């Protein structure tokens, strides 16, 4: 009976397309919301219940079908991997609402999909498992909602587990639920406190500036500012109506309001009183017939337990635990619900329970009414959120052009007037089979389905007739059914649909709009374009601005798309025909004054790399095209072509990698591919000379010096030449081949805290570099106060971390950051007599003294050499991290004839205006003699770049070298009986347990550990196998950690010889990693290969 089952799933819901189109025109009654939670907390099951309320799927299949998980691998794995949207209709009171619901993944590998969903919404339903409570990903999604300024409401799901699994009493369950609420509110409180303290710090700085100007007595205020701010509306509390208690799998859920309404009618108590007292320390005094306070102190049952939980517990007791038919009948009669005979006779008691609860306390009604009452409509968008969306990078909102600032009112009004500018944000592109598009639905489908069905064997004839009747009843979906039943021979073509939201104006099919790139500057285009210019006008080219036509508009209905002619402001929609213009996300507008929106906040960092190649080399063009499509379809995946020519795919984790490879094989490239072993990223660094040897014996001073000298002598003997000199202090002096330039460089390890600060401040350093570039080019750039504050904070923090004699005045002497000008390494200017402009010059633009200094010739060559050295270190060509290169000598000699000496000296006083100078030009025009004398070697600048790079590499090798491994933070929830196995797997894979704690009221332990990324592949599967599925890890990239062992270590002390032997061939973790990387990159690997091994013969048995 498979076809009939199929049809019952695909039968069209109660809400017609016309109804949804009419509801789209009233933004006050639109709610754009997403469902956020940790993995396996029940988001998709809850979404099923909400979808079933519209009749799109059968309520019996809710929770089993997982309608919004449309991918095959989502159904197999049982987790959501992408954001899916569906529009629902809900009548609440006398109002009708349109709910644009987006279901998002909970797995950490797909947290980028959560970011794409959150940007398009005004509110979020945060789902928390009643047993597991607040988990790592719950905290992440709450932070994402906070960063995007969207309002959350809470659903505590899986309450049935408290009864059936944990077997808690109703009183214990109440205490447990209170703790979960406290945990969620603690996360919200932390986010709120940090925001208030930031604002407070900003105000204090302003007041200090004003205080300096105005003389008078200083008044000190030591309050944090938290006392004045009202935060009561932020927290989740059942009496505020923003919490629903539910069991989505059993189809029930309720809010306090529901029970307050029931009991106000039955008991004659005012509804307002019940709303305030149903949750909290209140009890019902039967003697006084009043609600009293102090239930806990007097040992009484709280009102919530007495009136709410006891009823639910007794229902579970009768139906599931004891299966008491008589009691069930009484309950059914008292509740006034109708139960079908087949449900009451069913062998699974959960079927009967679901039938009763879905009528008594329907979860969809509880959640949707809370959404309509508590979540904002598009008209209620906060002005702060609008300014945040429109202020990109270093620009502040009030520095934007006046026309751009006027667009803020269009945002806030969410107007659908004819003259309102169209503003649309595309958060991601998703791939759809071209045949699934509504405009490609084939005509005469019903006839084809009839032909197909009647071509089956004769005994199916009766079924065929029934099936055709049912198809006729839902003609809209006959084509979808046809696609399911028949597999077309012709190759399916993938097309892209943009997942977007209209913030202002009305989007119409075929409308022309501007596509604004992330670097688009509205001020530049407004000065170039004529006033009143539209996207359909033929005007001159503007950087980062293109035009496109929105060919098709779609209503997103989960697994289906419905075609629309126009979409008013405030709605979520799909847009076809943008694949040539939008890569992953973009801003579209009819006004060139509109700025691009701020980039999405991605929590997961892509860290897992694999090299991909086709099985048959002739199919390489198909692979290239497939990878391009995959890059567009996945918000987090990155596709690179390395210097070696390898095609590399970078993903967020193992599950994400598997999904991307499956997509490449089956959807985008449609060829057989082979993926390499994961390419593990490492970093190279230097450390301070060790104080103990490998057997933890303290090194004596003479011995220690002897070892360092021995190592350095060996190194210098191997590398000494007439152009290179390495002294005992670690200073490397290198002369260029044409003998015109000499540089002296020393490598110094940065303190760990400073390295972490530089790594976390990459965006600030990038902004700083951008500002310095503009200043060197003589351009003015308006920087937001926030960016300036961030830069000055970075400088202050660096000054506090770089203390001591060797770091004296180091922050002011910073020459550049690297690699790529914003990495965690520093180039320091220690050249005597060279005062170059400070990298912090944007903080002191008012000072004339700071502007007087200028750059020396070839300054940029030194920076370029440092950037190259920092990008690939000498150990295994991996980027450097936490290294400071101090340039202590930089001489450029002139090879000019004596008569031209004066002119050369005069010439050498010229200064470069910009860093990005024309190198060849400078070598030809400024130093003609130098250029002439170095024809056989090439330009001076090129030699200087190479010399600085080599000097940095040799200086690096003169210090104790170490590898740094990428580390995952691993959170594992496991029961007590499998803890030992979890520890066993962690120990085997070089993991380190940080702490473990028991969740109160459960037998679950939360273990927090760190694990090298290199050892993480297959970790989740192994843990699940060893613990029989009772433990599952969440891996999130955390930090870089120095591997303590020296990859080049050889025994030098007597104790080390005794312990490790002369060969010292025991396992060296760092050497193993380093050789693996060198082997993969085709570099020389020093290892002994046994070619002709002989079998060992023992004296006892001469075999």
UniProtKB/TrEMBL annotation:
One of its GO terms (molecular function) is GTP binding. Pfam families: EFG_C, EFG_III, EFL1, GTP_EFTU. Residues 895-932 are annotated as: Disordered. GO terms for cellular component: cytosol; ribonucleoprotein complex. Keywords: GTP-binding, Hydrolase, Nucleotide-binding, Ribosome biogenesis. It comes from the Eukaryota. PANTHER family: ELONGATION FACTOR-LIKE GTPASE 1, TRANSLATION ELONGATION FACTOR-RELATED. This is Elongation factor-like 1.
